[in-house]
């Protein structure tokens, strides 16, 4: 099983930046791509970005291209989501996931979810 633990959420003013972290552990987590999703209150969970452990290949959803950046540190088994130029509409719970078949349109098969970390962007 794969265990994922997010951190780094909090309150930030509009225009600010925040970096989320996701520590991965367990069996075969490196076999999966790592992805970030978010879910705002009353809305469906939304794919944001994904990255592979081996090559560091990335994919982004169109709404966050140019503002969000996903990266990984293989030595720390940690994936990051750097968020810049934050807007109030970025307010959501952000989830890390281990998944298969990820592209800019999302992931076909999510194998594990983290518990989520809340991001609040004030205007």
Shape: globular
Number of helices: 0
Strand composition percent: over 45%
Task: Give a count of the beta strands, DSSP E runs of length 2 or more.
Answer: 11
State the major sheet.
Answer: 7 strands, mixed
Multimerization state: single chain
> What's the helix-strand series?
EEEEEEEEEEE
Summing up helix and strand content along with how strands pair, one would put the structural category as mainly beta
Radius of gyration: 13 Å
Distance linking N and C termini: 40 Å
**What number is the mean pLDDT?**
96
Helix content: under 10%
Q: Identify low-pLDDT runs.
A: none
Task: Give your account of this protein's structure.
The chain has 123 residues and is an all-beta fold. Helices cover 0% and strands 59% of the residues. The chain has no helices and 11 strands. The strands form 2 sheets. Strands 2, 4, 5, 6, 9, 10 and 11 form a 7-stranded mixed beta sheet that branches. The protein has a 4-stranded antiparallel beta sheet with strand order 1-3-8-7, with no helix packed on it. β4 and β5 (46-51) form a beta hairpin. The chain is globular. The termini are far apart. The model has no long low-confidence stretch (mean pLDDT 96).
